């Protein structure tokens, strides 16, 4: 509750929580998020997909994706849409944020988790962080910084800026990375943007494989995805899934990632 207390001291959240949901911002000081609970939910707490949008995206735009909302709702999960502090996520080596350590975003995500669990029947032990493009880059940073906060991570078409960090928080978490082989926006090997460079996906996966002691465990196919699977002695997941397309996102990829975590006993 330490991070939430920072927001409470502003007085913004004092007293009864203001109503919020898929069409109304849930305010946290000068930041916000949006949430859509599953339709026909039971009285018990539900798991959640915490979703990070792409460049110049918003929580409101995520909630306007009706297919995404339906897929997550049909899984019996809440959809929590984050909103970056700037047009892009303020994370290490990002354009215009080269000197950032990412802490402004990490504190925000901590506060969102605590606030959502306070306002809604959310099970904080059954949460998956997911994101597309720049949101996928945010997800890799979350996996490296706060692995204990999520049951697993799904990064789609995004990785670290520049290069993987020298070290990440341990123990390693479960992570599913999904990417298009012909992605021109975030190529697998990255590309230069302003004064920085998108990272190489293979380098990120190699770093995390070593960090978590993952070993190859087989292959999986789902729709247009072909996945190389790895597991460690604790049963955590590290899946690298490719599709033959470009810079694209399917809501069903989130269902696949969640199912991979379930099958491995991480949820």
UniProtKB/TrEMBL annotation:
Keywords: Hydrolase, Signal. GO terms for molecular function: hydrolase activity. The keyword NADP does not apply. Residues 1-19 form the signal peptide. Gene3D superfamilies: alpha/beta hydrolase. Residues 106-191 form the Phospholipase/carboxylesterase/thioesterase domain. This is Poly(3-hydroxybutyrate) depolymerase.
């Amino acid at each position: 509750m330490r991070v939430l207390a920072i927001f409470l001291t502003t007085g913004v959240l004092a007293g009864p929580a203001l109503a919020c949901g898929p069409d109304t911002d849930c305010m946290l000081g000068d930041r916000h998020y949006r949430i859509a609970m599953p339709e026909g939910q039971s009285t018990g707490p539900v798991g959640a997909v915490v979703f990070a949008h792409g460049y110049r995206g918003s929580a409101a735009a995520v909630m306007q994706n009706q297919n995404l909302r339906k897929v997550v709702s049909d899984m019996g999960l809440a959809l929590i849409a984050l909103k970056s502090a700037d047009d892009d996520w303020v994370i290490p080596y990002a354009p215009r944020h080269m000197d950032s350590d990412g802490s402004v975003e990490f504190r925000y995500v901590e506060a969102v988790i605590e606030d959502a669990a306070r306002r809604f029947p959310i099970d904080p032990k059954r949460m998956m962080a997911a994101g597309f493009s720049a949101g996928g880059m945010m997800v890799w940073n979350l996996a490296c910084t706060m692995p204990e906060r999520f049951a697993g991570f799904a990064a789609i078409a995004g990785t670290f800026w520049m290069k993987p960090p020298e070290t990440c928080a341990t123990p390693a978490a479960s992570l599913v990375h999904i990417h298009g082989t012909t992605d021109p926006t975030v190529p697998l090997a990255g590309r230069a943007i302003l004064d920085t460079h998108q990272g190489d996906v293979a380098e990120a996966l190699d770093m995390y494989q070593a960090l978590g002691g993952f070993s190859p465990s087989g292959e999986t196919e789902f729709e247009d995805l072909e996945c190389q699977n790895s597991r460690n002695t604790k049963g955590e997941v590290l899946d690298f899934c490719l599709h033959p397309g470009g810079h694209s996102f399917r809501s069903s990829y989130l269902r696949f990632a969640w199912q991979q975590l379930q099958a491995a006993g991480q949820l």
